[in-house]
From TrEMBL:
<feature type="binding site">
    <location>
        <begin position="876"/>
        <end position="880"/>
    </location>
    <ligand>
        <name>substrate</name>
    </ligand>
</feature>
<dbReference type="InterPro" id="IPR005195">
    <property type="entry name" value="Glyco_hydro_65_M"/>
</dbReference>
<dbReference type="InterPro" id="IPR012341">
    <property type="entry name" value="6hp_glycosidase-like_sf"/>
</dbReference>
<dbReference type="InterPro" id="IPR008928">
    <property type="entry name" value="6-hairpin_glycosidase_sf"/>
</dbReference>
<feature type="binding site">
    <location>
        <position position="907"/>
    </location>
    <ligand>
        <name>substrate</name>
    </ligand>
</feature>
<feature type="binding site">
    <location>
        <begin position="808"/>
        <end position="813"/>
    </location>
    <ligand>
        <name>substrate</name>
    </ligand>
</feature>
<dbReference type="InterPro" id="IPR023198">
    <property type="entry name" value="PGP-like_dom2"/>
</dbReference>
<feature type="domain" description="Glycoside hydrolase family 65 N-terminal">
    <location>
        <begin position="9"/>
        <end position="241"/>
    </location>
</feature>
<feature type="binding site">
    <location>
        <position position="789"/>
    </location>
    <ligand>
        <name>substrate</name>
    </ligand>
</feature>
<dbReference type="Pfam" id="PF00702">
    <property type="entry name" value="Hydrolase"/>
</dbReference>
<feature type="active site" description="Nucleophile">
    <location>
        <position position="773"/>
    </location>
</feature>
<feature type="site" description="Important for catalytic activity and assists the phosphoryl transfer reaction to Asp8 by balancing charge and orienting the reacting groups">
    <location>
        <position position="876"/>
    </location>
</feature>
<feature type="binding site">
    <location>
        <position position="931"/>
    </location>
    <ligand>
        <name>Mg(2+)</name>
    </ligand>
</feature>
<dbReference type="GO" id="GO:0030246">
    <property type="term" value="F:carbohydrate binding"/>
</dbReference>
<dbReference type="InterPro" id="IPR010976">
    <property type="entry name" value="B-phosphoglucomutase_hydrolase"/>
</dbReference>
<dbReference type="GO" id="GO:0008801">
    <property type="term" value="F:beta-phosphoglucomutase activity"/>
</dbReference>
<keyword id="KW-0378">Hydrolase</keyword>
Amino acid sequence: MNQIGWNVIETEFVPAELHHKETMFALGNGYLSTRGTFEEGYPGENATTFIHGVYDDVPVVYTELVNCPNWLPLKIAVDGEVFSLDRGEVLEYKRQLDLRWGILSRDVVWRSPKGQTLHLRFDRLTSMAEEHVLIVRCQITPIDFAGEIEVIASIDTNVDNQGVKHWEHLNAGDTDNSAWLQLGCLKSKIELGMATQLTCSENAIATSANVNGNPTLSAKYSAQTGRTVTVEKIVTVFTSRQVSHPAQVAQERLVSLPSYTTLLAAHGAVWDALWRDCDVVIEGDSTAQLAIRYNLFQLLIAAPRHEDRVSIPAKTLTGYAYRGHVFWDTEIFIVPFLTLTQPQIARNLLSYRYYNLDGARRKAHEAGYEGAMYPWESASTGDEVTPRWVTGADGHPVRIWCGDIELHITTDVAYGVWQYWQATGDDEWMQQQGAEIILDTAVFWGSRAEWNSDRQCYEIRDVIGPDENHEHVDNNTFTNRMVQWHMETAIAVLDWLRQHHPAKATALTAQLDLTGDRLQRWSHIAQHLLILHNPETGIIEQYEGFFNLIDVDLSEYEGRTKSMQAILGIEETNQRQILKQPDVLMLLYMLRQSPLKTPWANREDLQLLRANWDYYTPRTDHTYGSSLGPAIHAILACDLDQSDEAYEHFMRAALVDLKDVRGNAHEGIHAASTGGSWQAVVFGFGGVRLTETGPIVDTPHLPPGWTRLNFKLHWQKQCYEFDISSTNGVTEVRVINNSEVPTLYTEKLPETFMDLSIKPTATEMPIKGVIFDLDGVITDTSEHHYRAWQQLADEEGIAFNRQANESMRGLARRDSLLHLLGDRQVTEAQIQEMMMRKNGYYEQFIQTLTADDLLPGVLPLLDELQATGIKIAIGSSSKNAQLVTKLLGISERLDAISDGYSVERHKPAPDVFLHAAMQLGLDPADCLVVEDAAAGVEAGLNAGMWVVGLGPTERFTAAHVICDDLAEVSWHDLTALLADSQIVCLPIAV
Ligand code: BGC
């Protein structure tokens, strides 16, 4: 992974952009999302947290995601003045979203109205490893004063959905430094429990209270000039959707949490694993690089990784537009990215449709049809939740017909299922859930298509196609052609079931009444459904009568700042050939391999695309029509080899939220556009085609300036890495790898790590940071440890000697003690006492350390690394690492120290090295570990890093390079040895 293009940075706070930035700086973890409002609040803010699946009833739009209590509030008061960006003076300001590690930070230098200046550093994360854990951390440094500072942390329960209240208070309580609450949704009765605690690195007077129904904790301390104090607010949140007593579970979870640094390392490890699969590297265009990562970040924080009864709403979990409802945006725009990079999440999203089949059946039944008819807008049950009326721009009610007649959603879901199955080969899921979706929706179409005896064909009348500018149309080609596909696919799926899962085929045949007559009708529909097409021109009519509409030259409206529909009105637009989004072109994209199924189908696909592109593109409202369109236009422009045009469309899609190109980003992230942007890069610029034997690069179309494009795709449990480079107009494609896909993360800390890429060659050695173990590598304190353990052992009457000491090499203090104690039964209190005693001896012994105790070769190597610009860290299990490095005189040379306090799990767990890499801001794959213990070597490999082992060969099995020590080892020599190493990082279970 390259290091550039990971940070979205804001250097000035502009109040007019408040709501756009709230969307832009939203954080989430697949369970919930929180808009980027400030910890201290701001007048007019839209503080919002949405949790997947937490809906409540509401008039008109039926149901909406509920704004949950605001967990962010953290107020800092100096001499009675409360920090806020709208008071006092903001001397410095920087907000930064680190996409690589999922951390939102803010540095502010603020002068209070009374003239006291503070530096505040906020870090916020919604844990990816522990989805129910949310953290705000603040480092407070008084710059020009000493005095009392009070920090007040609360959970704001007085929240609503833009005026609509959804919560009732059920219960609350508090202790000295923690508090909790229990609320219930007024209608859906979903319960929510939250608990919070506040810790302060300084001795502080802590109080807790319930202020206006809000659990509130505060800490007051005497601040010193220049002295930084850290406060940590940790919140846990559960709902009755997962556990029966959410408030109780929230409290229990809170007290059992590990330290901030351990939580941080676990969080980072999940992000690391996700990016290994999902990252897209673009070289030569830093805007596109950042934009694509931002879009993928948005998808990854919205994607439910551990639940299969929720899906991703059209505005993800970041805004109020569409009220948290789910559209075709998910299956057509988002699912392909997940199917090909995180298939288990794609399956979760498709299972959501399976569990909602009953709602779809009710919808079909109420409309007088058979089978399952998916709702245009979906929430928790699968029943239709599209509002029937909304208020138009002129204040008049407008009837929304999509819920009644925008039928293509039913096939879009089936299409998503089919694509997932083709790409993953997940037969198990297909026979259990996917097949039923495809078959029962086919039953619906069988009853919906009408036979026209005059024309001797089937028709589907009175629909809305993807282009919503035209309502109540007949024989929309997109819908009809997709239904044709659906009929054929359903027959194929049933055949497959009969062959491979006969019992399931029999059960579904009975359950869905799949009689011979019904199947014959499906086949008849597939052959005789009306598909409009002019063989002379090649142009496909969008629906019957489209060509008779008034034609409009959209260039005459250039410079407009609203949609054509907003300019002309709904009725006028309906009568004109103006598209909100691609319709025929959308069809050609979705069925790229076999666009038409008519007697004229043998026409060359590209000619067909060209003719329809030339006709429909100038008639489409690209700027203010639907945000779903630009990414699709980008892909098709690539197919037509129009890279410049493709790039323009792509940037319109990729920057829609970052740059707020449509002026509506404040309403939430444009979810479909995020997935569409990925498809544009992979299928458009990358030229990927999905074939029966796997993904291939057909013809790449890198935009001008792009020198390299790199991404990975999963296909049938294999991982393919594509590397496309362009030098002086010559494009080279390398399919780098083809290996079994590992399970890269689990609910908790990842157990295994795997570097999927082939070992870099000498010329592309990626190392940007070196992480040294301390004892035995930088200095030899083992003698001091040995003496300290010996003294303890003697006092305890335990036999101990140098040989026994050797077997404790690399072990953390506690593990060493347990090893030393052997079978002896001791209490936890005794363990703690003995560890302290041993450490006391050790601290006495090491006071004599000086620079002379650095091991041979260390100092020159550190100097060489510094001169080369390589970052340096210590990754040690020792709790004395800070002290030891100071005594050795090398603190100044180090960029980071991760020690026994940083993480909870010790080597061979990878945590301490991952923590160090995170502190250095580096990708683990770009780091080298230098270790002298087998457990440390294993930890480095588990972290997916390069590893140099120091010591006898028999001590290590898998280090990339083994040396006796660092004496006379130069960085140049080391990189050469590493480049020659034959070992590729392999997963090792911890
Ligand atoms: C688009 C639909 C889309 C919906 C939600 C509408 O404006 O026309 O295609 O599904 O927004 O994003």
